[in-house]
Amino acid sequence: MTRLRLVPYRDLKRVLLAKGLQWVRCEGSHNVFRHESGRTVVVPDHGSEVIVRPLLRKILRDLNLSTKEYHRTLDKK
Asked: Under 8 Å CB-to-CB from 70, ≥6 apart: which residues?
């Protein structure tokens, strides 16, 4: 099993945008992204702090995104 790479909000935002999600709104420090199929994902923005592993796993599960696909998307720049 591949170890999940922790990233700050700005890097995770690039993954979300690459997977077809669009930024909808920001409420406080929480950003809401929506896919055209209707899926919604909420991601906290705490500056340069990394998103904790349990929350990152939940976000990937909500996106139906595997760990390998997540790492592949992160490596594309």
From this structure: 4, 5, 15, 60
The pair of three-digit structure tokens given for residue 75, joined into one six-digit string: 């490596």
Structure tokens at 38: 């209707």
Q: Do residues 41 and 56 touch, judged by C-beta distance below 8 A? A: no
Query: Does residue 40 surpass a pLDDT of 80?
Result: yes
DSSP state letter for 67: H
Average pLDDT, the chain: 92
The predicted model scores a pTM of 0.88
Q: What is the pLDDT of residues 54-71, one digit of tens each?
A: 999 999 999 999 999 999
Domains of the chain by start residue, with CATH:
9-75 (3.30.920.30)
The answer to whether 21 touches 35, Cβ cutoff 8 Å, is yes
